[in-house]
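Sample intake sheet
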Amino acid sequence: MKTDEFKSWLQAKYPDYPQTASARFANWNTIEKYYGDLDAFYKKDRCNALIEEFNYSTADERENRAQNHKVPIDGNIRNGSATLKSTIRLYVEFRESQ
């Protein structure tokens, strides 16, 4: 787990938007709460399978389909899933920058 390093990287990536860095870090913590250490997912396939779990289309939304991932969403499932997927992609970007 690279908690401190990821938090510092987010703060450096969003120096003018500390709220964004904090929100993405909180999202990352939530994902890890339900999935465990994201390093294992990164080592396995650069988080590709995990990212796929967070896909939720407008068609899924129209059909009121259940989400495929484990993280509960309180609100719009499509927007919430997209935000979490974006956070996972940021984590991949962070890992690849090391």
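Comment: DSSP finds six helices and no strands in the chain. The chain has a mean pLDDT of 96.
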